[in-house]
Amino acid sequence: MADKALPTALNLPMVDPLPEATQKYFDVCQDKLGIIPNVLRAYAFDIEKLDAFTGIYNNLMLAPSGLSKLEREMIAVVVSSINKCFYCLVAHGAAVRAMSGDPKLGEALVMNYRVADIDARQRAMLDFAAHMTTASATIEETHRAALREVGFTDHDIWDIANVAGFFNMTNRVASATAMMPNDDYHAQAR
């Protein structure tokens, strides 16, 4: 996708010029990632919506947590795999490959996390995120207890649920708007 092309099927061009704080944020993304993720470009037609999205994303994915940044990316990929969200599978699959240094892990999580070479703790975490994605209303205390049995705290369970919930929401928005991932993600960390 060309840099100036719209990142979704909707005709919602970015605010031009971007507010100074937003431009600084985009500049940081360009410096750190080498790209401005299309999801940010998609939200940039409305700076309040962009700020709300980035605020919750940064809090869930980057703030201190009992979950590693890799584990949070793993949840993003598994939820996105179940929801068949092309944007998030490509973008967060690349993040898993980069953070883990293991292209096979990234591919396994995209295809079927149950074949991934992960430990019992991560498997329980991903089982919970998958269950939440497919049948959240059926989650009971036994499901939370299974997480505690492998060492997760109640705060960790909160974080697992919130990361999974966030990606269930963003997957639906990305799919409904035909949001396309940046081409650069496809070749990263392979």
Automatic annotation (TrEMBL):
The GO terms describing molecular function are:
peroxiredoxin activity
Listed A to Z, the keywords are: Oxidoreductase, Peroxidase
- Residues in domain Carboxymuconolactone decarboxylase-like? 51-99
Q: Does this entry carry the keyword Oxidoreductase?
A: yes
Q: Which domain of life is it from?
A: Bacteria
Record's NCBIfam families?
ahpD_dom, peroxid_rel
PANTHER family given for it?
CARBOXYMUCONOLACTONE DECARBOXYLASE-LIKE DOMAIN-CONTAINING PROTEIN, SI:CH211-175M2.5
Q: What is this protein called?
A: Peroxidase-related enzyme
Its lineage opens with: Bacteria, Pseudomonadati, Pseudomonadota, Alphaproteobacteria, Rhodobacterales
